[in-house]
From TrEMBL:
Keywords: 4Fe-4S, Electron transport, Iron, Iron-sulfur, Metal-binding, Repeat, Transport. Transmembrane segments: none annotated. Pfam families: Fer4_11. GO terms for molecular function: 4 iron, 4 sulfur cluster binding; metal ion binding. This is 4Fe-4S dicluster domain-containing protein. Gene3D superfamilies: 3.30.70.20. InterPro entries: 4Fe4S_Fe-S-bd, 4Fe4S_Fe_S_CS, ET_IronSulfur_Cluster-Binding, TAT_signal. The keyword Chaperone does not apply. Residues 133-164, 165-194 form the 4Fe-4S ferredoxin-type domain.
Length: 324
């Protein structure tokens, strides 16, 4: 594909909020823009773009044959918050070969969820299987398991599993017993020992906003548990989670398992083929939790591991706020 075609395709994806067009994504329901055929009298441009049809076939067409139209996917009136978006099963794929510990994912997550200190929902760890193997970076977050132990042990139904695959926490119900933290084998939950920082509170506009389990624009509550939520407030608006769009290296892919499609905003892939070709796996699968987050092994890496060491702090991937 020539450079002009690459730019055209990239621009087209960007206009679709880095989620591709409906023809690429099939029925994934994660695009604010879709495409339809342009009028016949539109002159060919000579530039082509590749699109994936709903049956998985890659086709190449002239850019003049496609036009953008508004295509909104607002689910707020179509589903119950605790039940989830119907006919969807959201999944994430993390490509470890691309991760260089840039921490842009973490910074964006912290900013958009008003997280401070060491309570980050997404952490990046230095991993090494043995002295004879090369180290690599491992981003971790809630695995949104299909059989979550955290939901089973919660005595007040504050932690719940939705039909669309998301595991969420209702902070208004949470009593802070931390049973869920003890039950989670991935150690991805955090406890709010204190009130949010004053700076965080001042940055928020709560006027006319009714708190719900999927609304991330409010402070964490003292004495409750928090964790990664796959940004349901973004998903219902047809947008990708913050970590996906913030990553400069395309590490995170997000999509719908039922549609067998995931995207990192720059490319859209078949989930099943990606996992098969790259030997995808899930963390601690032997426990039977059936996570919704898949990992691709750190093979054929794009950058040297040492490039990510400058920002790394052992056992602490988040800088605490200044005491001043």
């Amino acid at each position: 594909m020539d450079e002009n075609n690459k730019k055209t395709r990239r621009k087209f994806l960007d206009r679709g909020l880095k989620l591709g067009v409906a023809g690429v994504l099939g029925g994934i329901g994660l695009s604010k823009l879709s495409a339809k055929f342009a009028p016949d009298d539109k002159a060919p441009t000579g530039e082509t773009m590749e699109l994936m049809t709903t049956d998985g076939t890659i086709v190449e067409i002239d850019t003049s044959e496609v036009m953008e139209v508004e295509h909104h996917h607002h689910y707020s009136m179509d589903y119950n918050v605790r039940e989830g978006i119907p006919n969807r099963k959201f999944v994430m794929v993390v490509d470890l070969a691309k991760c260089k510990n840039a921490l842009k994912c973490q910074q964006s997550c912290n900013k958009n969820h008003y997280i401070t200190g060491d309570n980050a929902w997404l952490k990046v760890y230095k991993m090494q299987e043995s002295a004879d193997t090369a180290p690599y970076w491992l981003p971790t977050m809630c695995q949104h398991c299909d059989k979550p132990a955290c939901v089973t042990v919660c005595p007040v139904d504050a932690t719940f599993k939705r039909e669309d695959g998301l595991v969420l926490i209702d902070n208004e119900r949470c009593i802070g017993c931390r049973f869920c933290m003890a039950a989670c084998p991935y150690s991805t939950r955090v406890f709010n020992w204190g009130d949010p920082g004053q700076e965080v509170t001042l940055n928020m506009d709560m006027t006319g906003v009714e708190p719900t389990p999927e609304y991330a624009g409010r402070p964490s509550l003292k004495g409750t548990v928090d964790k990664c939520d796959f940004c349901p407030h973004m998903v219902k608006e047809g947008e990708l989670p913050h970590c996906v769009t913030a990553c400069p290296n395309g590490v995170f892919y997000f999509g719908d398992k039922y549609e067998d499609t995931v995207t990192n905003g720059e490319e859209t892939l078949r989930l099943s083929k990606l996992l098969e070709d790259k030997a995808g796996y899930r963390l601690l699968e032997s426990l039977g939790t059936e996570p919704s987050v898949y990992y691709l092994p750190p093979v054929d890496r794009l950058v040297d591991f040492e490039e990510g060491m400058s920002e790394f702090k052992e056992f602490e991937s988040v800088e605490k706020p200044s005491e001043e």
